[in-house]
Fold this sequence. Notes:
The protein has helices at 18-22, 37-40, 42-51, and strands at residues 71-77, 80-86, 94-96. By secondary structure, the protein is α+β, with helices and mostly antiparallel strands. The protein folds into two domains: 1-56, no CATH class; 60-97, no CATH class. The protein has a three-stranded antiparallel β-sheet with strand order 1-2-3, with no helix packed on it.
Amino acid sequence: MQTPEPNPKSESACPIGDARLRQVLLPIAQARGLPNVAYTSADFFCYERNEVVGRTWAGLAFTDSIPDRPFAQPLEFMGLPLLIMRDQGGVLPMQTMPSRSF
């Protein structure tokens, strides 16, 4: 997957506008869904990756699907290069990797 490039001026601001985003959280009778651009815009993808998904944990693998130690496997999640590994003690630390390492 090729990572979308955000518009530099909208790096931290919600590309669809905060007022429009708040309409999603209203009671169901008054709420509005996200506009189509939320599903097709590179700016919204980058906003969501950085401001929503990137601020919490995301499950990317199950421990029983990772082979015995030592083991390392690169993967990409929302355009971010990551490394899943199992060290000599069986620990599964998650590491980010510079893009040039891929």
